[in-house]
Design goal:
The complex is a heterotrimer of chains A (311), B (357) and C (272). Chain A is mostly helical and 311 residues long. Chain A is built from twelve helices and two strands, in the order H-H-H-H-H-E-E-H-H-H-H-H-H-H. Chain A has one domain: ABC transporter involved in vitamin B12 uptake, BtuC (Orthogonal Bundle). In chain A, strands 1-2 form a two-stranded antiparallel ribbon. In chain A, helix 11 packs across helix 12. Chain A starts with a helix and ends in a 14-residue tail after the last helix. In chain B, the strands form two sheets. In chain B, strands 1-4 form a two-stranded antiparallel sheet. A two-stranded antiparallel ribbon of chain B has the order 2-3. Chain B has a domain of 219 residues. In chain B, 71% of the residues lie in helices and 3% in strands. In chain B, helix 3 crosses helix 11 and helix 4 packs across helix 5. The radius of gyration of chain B is 21 Å and the shape is globular. Chain C is an alpha/beta fold. Chain C has two domains: 182 residues, 3-Layer(aba) Sandwich (Rossmann fold); 76 residues, no CATH class. In chain C, the strands form two sheets. A six-stranded mixed β-sheet of chain C has the order 6-7-8-3-9-10, with helices on both faces. Chain C has a four-stranded antiparallel β-sheet with strand order 2-1-4-5, covered by helices on one side. In chain C, a hairpin with a 2-residue loop joins strand 4 and strand 5. The longest helix of chain C is centred in the middle third of the chain and has 19 residues. Chains in contact: A-B, A-C, B-C.
Chain lengths: 311, 357, 272
């Protein structure tokens, strides 16, 4: 009985009795979730448009942040450094298309997946070789004053992060739905061959999505880097993006957002309220187990379509 | 003109179904194994300890993963976790029963790893591909977390480290600080030789064919009477057994002592690299891939000084990482089916030489 | 088609009142017919008539919402495909479902998996019983390879074979299981005349030599009229006719619903 109580009753009593603390936990979770969402978003864009499961998305976040910090360390003002980084990410997209994608067309998924792991090694080595491998502080002048709303402690920076995440998603949504390139992208995502046959240039589309994914990575890198410094561990959030993708479905943009928030909030709550029962640090695996349990009931993800098998 | 099968007529299905139907291949394999056993006579301590022992052990793990991923088509990122089960369980068994032969402890630990693999294979009933990869990631993180948190697994050692105690085999010290590298090398080599042959036998018989059937088209496999769930679970169990044995050897015959970091996600990835570079669905490929992945970094570390280049240590490290990544991409572009395929092509060429076709 | 080695017997399989729908789409409604021992039954009908769905129901891949299947005297509602295989039902597919990474020999060997007994420990040693078992099955697979005249492609990965040969290998895989009931889903689709003739010969030989009961789906009316003992006609998921080729050919409903305007030229029915 005591065990049941500790698992199923006490945590909820804790949540109810100190709701302000609970709210703060949820908010912290939401903010982590936004980061996950941003990384997952990069994944989804590339997966949709090129069928490549891009493992290097996490390293792209690190690479973008490193480039930005590096440029600023060399005396570039923030705006110039931002433009410079965007240009670098676009150049990277060109390079990836030139060196890898066009030579690996029609290969199996796992080969493409592996090639992006190779790419992540290259990017990591390159980034650290050019900009150094020590932890760097990133300050691009985002305000970070704490303030209170209804007894709940908030930080301006967190609000800013959430807001820019939302704006980014909005811009992308508009881009995909209302521009010519966006339509072409959706066509490619739907059926490569059909898209090719109506004259959509596949390679250009690849370059565009990889560039966009690079910029999404840059935003994620700025947020995360400003919070906890630019360092190698940034690239590891790519692994956390996997359960997010499972939850949201590999091809759904809203899925990536909602999935990221669920995982972010879920693991924070689990860690704070249930973690002590397991001896702590359950954040390491909670997301994966959550995704796993979810998969058993809904293999197609939150927003995916039901798969009907045919022969 | 040496490599020919002319004149070698097969008069029974048994000879036609041999592992190496061509005489020259058989001779070559026997030579390779003989040379492998004689290597301790010429190789120095550094080569055995830093290069060959890890290469052999990781070959075994790669074979294990290849059975699951290359043959049965189930992508796994949990290799490190399953290896950790082998390592930690060997430790538990041999400290609980010091008189038990340590090799038997390794095999028993492999069986326990198989059991764990079975449990984490259950999701494969409903999920496939990259989705399954996440299930195996859960195994990876959960298992390591468990070994970190529960003191029982490390006999409540405050540092959380497991250390291989000294154990003997036929009166010779095989584990612990006293065991010499040549002895450990020979034990590991024997394990690999035996289990590589066993794996080769498995994949050319009924079980291998049912795995490949599931991999190539699971629906059709089910319709010809293969039970998909049981077949996949068997793949998980046998694969995890191999990984578990490799994990036990990794701690007891290579590292000497280990913490959970030794089995982290990076290990899972490097074993996955091995089978992809080496060739999915090839036992030989697993070994070639393991050789490539373990030896290239060593080569990259040693090459610059050899040609008289000196550079700061961290710069060299970065270049190494980049080169390693580029090599992976390069190999995937040149031959996505891996080193084993290159080997096969070379053999075909050689067989027809001097005629091009 | 008059002299047959074996007489057509009683019903081997009976389909009774089968309804099958996917969501709101009705694939089969109230279909009943029987497949008799040793006969060749053709299931015909326009595209989307539910022919493939019918085969999928018979071998347990789809589960009908209503109705029963009685096979070898046993009535069932649900069955897993691998269980169906165990009771002696084998099939081929409309879009070839071979294991592309494996050789012809290995593909056909998979057809005998159900008959192999040795567990993985024996297999790992590849010695004694496991080896003998492997050799015995190899021998019977070789007989099938001879029968289908595909000796030369024994070691070729099936992914590299031309379409017609792939169909033949797929038939070989089904035959390797020594089925009592063989379901063929468009075995001659996409073949040229000679390949079709070869395939007809194989189908008739299988039926004659092994006494295997065969149910096949085919669009080529001349083939259907030539080789089948009976014909079942489906249209929009309903059975509209059932009888000998001659009866079906003369059936008003079939002519109206299926053969369209070309009343007396059944050879052109494909285009309907």
């Amino acid at each position: 009985m005591e065990i049941l109580n500790a698992f199923f009753v006490a945590p909820f009593v804790d949540m109810g009795s100190d709701y302000i603390f609970f709210a703060e936990v949820v908010i912290a979770g939401v903010l982590t979730g936004v980061m996950y969402s941003l990384v997952a978003l990069g994944f989804v864009l590339i997966f949709k448009a090129s069928g490549v499961f891009n493992f290097s998305q996490g390293v792209m976040v690190l690479f973008a942040a490193l480039t930005l910090v590096g440029l600023m360390e060399h005396g570039a003002p923030v705006w110039l450094a931002l433009i410079g980084t965007v240009l670098v990410m676009i150049a990277l997209a060109f390079a990836v298309e030139w060196v890898m994608l066009r030579r690996l067309v029609n290969q199996e998924e796992i080969v493409l997946f592996m090639s992006t792991i190779g790419l992540s090694f290259v990017l990591q080595g390159l980034g650290e070789m050019v900009w150094g491998s020590n932890v760097k502080a990133l300050d691009i002048g985002i305000p970070s004053e704490p303030f209170e709303v209804g007894g709940i402690l908030l930080n301006e920076f967190d609000l800013f992060a959430a807001a820019s995440g939302a704006v980014l998603v909005g811009v992308l949504a508009v881009f995909f739905h209302y521009t010519r390139i966006g339509r072409a992208l959706r066509a490619v995502a739907d059926d490569h061959q059909a898209a090719l046959s109506v004259g959509i240039p596949l390679r250009t589309i690849w370059i565009i999505v990889w560039s966009v994914a690079g910029m999404v990575g840059l935003v994620a890198g700025i947020m995360w880097g400003a919070k906890s410094g630019v360092q190698f561990s940034l690239s590891l959030i790519a692994l956390k993006a996997l359960p997010v993708l499972i939850l949201g479905g590999f091809t759904s943009v809203p899925g990536a957002i909602v999935g990221g928030l669920i995982i972010g909030v879920g693991e924070k709550i689990a860690e704070i309220y249930w973690g002590p029962l397991f001896g702590g640090a359950i954040e390491n695996w909670f997301a994966y187990v959550l995704a796993l349990v979810f998969l058993l009931f809904r293999p197609q993800g939150l927003f995916g379509e039901k798969i009907i098998e045919r022969v | 003109m040496i490599y020919r099968e002319a004149g070698q007529f097969k008069t029974s299905y048994a000879t036609d179904q041999m592992m190496f139907p061509i005489l020259q291949d058989r001779i070559f394999m026997i030579l390779v194994i003989a040379v492998a056993y004689l290597i301790p006579l010429i190789a120095n301590e550094y080569w055995l300890q830093a290069v060959l022992i890890p290469f052999l052990i990781l070959s075994l793990a790669a074979i294990g993963l290849n059975l699951l991923t290359g043959y049965a088509g189930q992508l796994s990122l949990g290799t490190g976790g399953f290896m950790a089960v082998g390592g930690y369980m060997t430790y538990k068994i041999t400290t609980a029963f010091p008189d038990l032969n340590v090799l038997i402890a390794v095999l028993l630990a492999g069986l326990l790893a198989a059991l764990v693999g079975l449990v984490f294979g259950i999701p494969s009933l409903r999920i496939k591909g990259f989705y399954l990869a996440v299930a195996t990631l859960a195994a990876q993180f959960f298992i390591l977390w468990l070994f970190n948190k529960v003191g029982w697994f490390v006999n409540y050692s405050p540092s959380g480290t497991i250390t291989a105690p000294p154990r003997t085999l036929l009166g010779i010290m095989v584990t612990g600080p006293e065991a010499t590298a040549p002895v450990r090398y020979l034990v590991v080599l024997t394990f690999l030789a035996f289990f590589a042959l066993a794996a080769k036998n498995l994949v050319r018989g009924r079980i291998g064919r049912s795995w490949m059937a599931i991999r190539d088209m699971d629906i059709a496999a089910e319709i010809i009477g293969i039970r998909p769930f049981q077949t996949k679970l068997l793949a998980f169990a046998i694969s995890s057994f191999y990984c578990g044995v490799a994990g036990g050897l990794y701690v007891f015959f290579y590292l000497g002592s280990a913490e959970t970091e030794a089995f982290d996600i990076a290990l899972s990835f490097s074993v996955l690299f091995m089978i992809i570079i080496g060739g999915l669905g090839s036992i030989l490929g697993s070994i070639l891939g393991a050789a490539f992945i373990t030896m290239v970094p060593i080569f990259l570390t040693n090459a610059p000084p050899l040609i008289g280049l000196s550079m700061p240590i961290d710069l060299q490290k970065h270049i190494e990482v980049m080169l390693f990544g580029s090599l992976i991409v390069f190999f995937l572009i040149v031959e996505p089916r891996g080193l084993a395929r290159l080997w096969q092509i070379a053999k075909e060429k050689f067989r027809l030489w001097p005629f091009p076709h | 088609m008059t002299q047959r080695a074996r007489q057509i017997g009683d019903a081997l399989l009976k389909v009774e009142g089968v309804h099958l729908s996917f969501g709101g789409v009705k694939a089969l409604s109230d279909v009943s017919f029987e497949i008799r021992e040793h006969e060749i039954l053709a299931i015909i009908g326009p595209n989307g008539a539910g022919k493939s769905s019918m085969l999928n129901v018979i071998n347990g891949f789809y589960h009908p919402q209503e109705g029963t299947i009685t096979y070898k005297g046993e009535t069932r509602k649900r069955m897993k495909p691998h269980a169906a295989a165990k009771t002696g039902i084998a099939r081929t597919f409309q879009n070839i479902a071979l294991f592309r990474g494996m050789s012809t020999l290995d593909n056909i060997m998979t057809g005998r998996l159900l008959k192999m007994r040795r567990n993985f420990l024996w297999q790992a040693l590849y010695w004694g019983p496991a080896k003998n078992e492997e050799m015995a099955h190899r021998a019977s697979v070789e007989r099938i390879i001879d029968f289908l005249e595909i000796q030369s492609i024994r070691r070729t990965p099936v992914g590299r074979l031309p379409y017609g040969l792939q169909k033949r290998v797929e038939l070989g895989r089904a035959l390797a299981a020594e089925p009592d009931l063989l379901l063929l889903d468009e075995p001659m689709a996409g073949m040229n005349v000679e390949e079709k003739e070869d395939m007809c010969r194989f189908v008739l030989d299988v039926n004659d030599e092994f006494g295997t009961t065969i149910a096949l789906i085919e669009h080529d009316m001349s083939v259907v009229m030539d080789i089948s003992d009976r014909v079942v006609v489906l249209d929009y998921g309903r059975k509209i006719a059932d009888g000998t080729p001659d009866q079906v050919r003369a059936d008003r409903v079939v002519i109206d619903a299926y053969l369209g305007v070309s009343h007396d030229q059944s050879e052109t029915a494909e285009q309907a």
